[in-house]
Design a protein that fits this description.
3-stranded mixed β-sheet, 4 helices, Zincin-like, 50% helix, single chain, 107 residues
Length: 107
């Protein structure tokens, strides 16, 4: 399994993507979240669910890119989907896996 080794490694990956997507981040944190994988605010704050550290890196990248794109595209419309595809290819595979994992954890 290709998981993150530690919290700092995950944060470094977030910062790599932020530079690539030209998104300024003010605060970056990881904590336990009951019903979300991540959240972002218009003031530049990003919070990720700490459970992502136990998941495959590709799933983490999906959540990272998903949230960072919301700084410039606040919805999941055509532009957001096009950007997701441009950066991650067939991103729906990761989306489906996260939904599957969320359903399994709640059952």
């Amino acid at each position: 399994m290709n998981c993150w080794r530690e919290k700092e490694e995950f944060k470094f990956r977030v910062l790599e993507w932020a530079v690539r997507l030209q998104v300024p981040i003010k605060i970056l944190s990881l904590r336990r979240m009951k019903s979300k994988w991540a959240s972002c605010s218009t003031s530049g704050n990003l919070t990720f669910n700490i459970e992502l550290l136990d998941m495959e890196r590709e799933l983490g990248d999906y959540v990272i890119v998903h949230e960072l794109l919301h700084f410039n595209v606040p919805n999941h419309g055509k532009l957001w989907k096009s950007l997701m595809r441009a950066y991650l290819g067939d991103y729906e595979v990761y989306e489906a896996e996260l939904k599957r994992l969320a359903g399994r954890e709640r059952s």
